[in-house]
Amino acid sequence: MPARSSLLRLASAGAVLSLALVSCVGGEPTNSTPDSSVSQNQPSASPEVQGDLVTYYEQDIQWEPCENGVECATVQVPLDYANPEDQNIDLALNRRVSEGAKRNLLINPGGPGISGMEMLTETAPYIFSDKVKREFNTVGFDPRGVGESSPVQCETDEEKDQSRQENLRAWVPEDREELVEQSKDYAKDCAQNTGDLLGHVDTVSAAKDLDIIRAVLGNEKLDYLGFSYGTFLGATYADLFPQRVGSLVLDGAMDPTITTAELDKEQAIGFEGEIDAWLQSCLDGEQCPFDGTLEEAKMQLQLFFAQIENEPLVSSDGRTVPIIDFVNGFIIPLYDNSSWPMLSTAMTEAMSGNVDPILYFSDLSSSRDQDGVYTSNADEAFVAINCLDRPMDSDPETMQAQATELMRVAPTLGKYFSYYALNCKEWEYPATGTPQKLEAKGSDKILVVGTTEDPATPYKWSQSLADQLSNATLLTYEGHGHTAYGRSNDCIDHAVESYLIEGKAPKEGTQC
């Protein structure tokens, strides 16, 4: 059995936006009907594109009607950009056409591993204003290895369910030994079921794919909106192709210079702080399963987690919910403060023995529907992409030291963030990426958006990325939650949309 589901998985903006729609949307979006006859610019290779890549840049794209009132198409890209003539893979795209629009806005919800095609149909219609919809054809895409784009494949749905129910705790030595053995099996299954693609789902390759998509769509420059991990993909593109940057919005930025250990620590601190804010809100509200001071409430929460570590709860459908799967569900509402009341209700139920509401959130983060079908490969793609993008030190003493530090800085959640490197310990493909600055020298203005109390991508990461990029402006949302555009306030939305449509970035230092 695999180790992946026995270690914490963090959601991206895609799951958060979907959760927000559960309680906030009260109607259907107004969709324009796609028209396959809409005139499009012809694809053409940029002058600097040479050799075997030219055929990829000059391929024709054929749009066909598909589900949810949009159009779908397939674009071919090289499996290996070092040898583009050897083998190609398919990328899946969809679009919502706006009559008269001459620009295409590509969207990425993050992850890595979340489907941009799913975002286009499920959440994009609600977050974009009519002005944006009139200006752009919105285009969703699944990056290589994700969703419908030559996906990474490791497990069956039954295996995913089974592994999520195992009560393996990485901070317990005996359990950790079992996780090490499972990680070997998981790596072997991923390699066997995915093939050579597994060594080429890195973000640099995905960014090069973006440039082929840009050219095939007929645009001289790339207009792009990326959330969370999507900021890393977008910034990588800008660094590789600075002269082809159009309107580029990077919301909830990742810092490309930090190590995996630093990333884990800073996210653990971020979620620890968000727990404090949620708990205080809970105590100040009408329905809360905790009482006393904030410190006392936090101790009650930690004691409850400790109980689940030793005695997992069981859902109404008979599934066991061990501590890792419980925490995976618990943190989802922490991504958006508008969902805090839902978390308070879910915890009230859990502490009364009903784990179903928390399991709903965990299923949401894993893309599992009510019929037991996993509708995406998000978890598998998450591991595969991260194992290539960032070197991870799986030395036992190093992981132990990091776990000790995580528990010190984040006493409630730190232990659950520990030992992530086990995922990549037996990976058959070594990491190709390394922490480094992304500068995108010579690009047009790039807009970075950061949220001051973002637990998943801490605000200082947005500050750092804006400083690294040679021509970027930082827009700040003063509030809680992961990312800002489409879930914060009109000030943020207007600033982002003015930049997208008119190319006018807000004044440096703008806060909303």
TrEMBL record:
Name of one Pfam family that matches: Abhydrolase_4
Protein family per UniProt: Belongs to the peptidase S33 family.
Positions of region (Disordered): 28-48, 142-167
Annotated signal sequence range: 1-20
Entry keywords, A to Z: Hydrolase, Signal
Record-annotated Peptidase S33 tripeptidyl aminopeptidase-like C-terminal domain positions: 411-512
Keyword Signal belongs to the record: yes
Gene3D superfamilies: alpha/beta hydrolase
Keyword Hydrolase: yes
The organism of origin for this protein: Glutamicibacter bergerei
Domain of life: Bacteria
GO molecular function, one term: hydrolase activity
Record's compositionally biased regions (Polar residues): 29-47
Protein name per Swiss-Prot or TrEMBL: Alpha/beta hydrolase
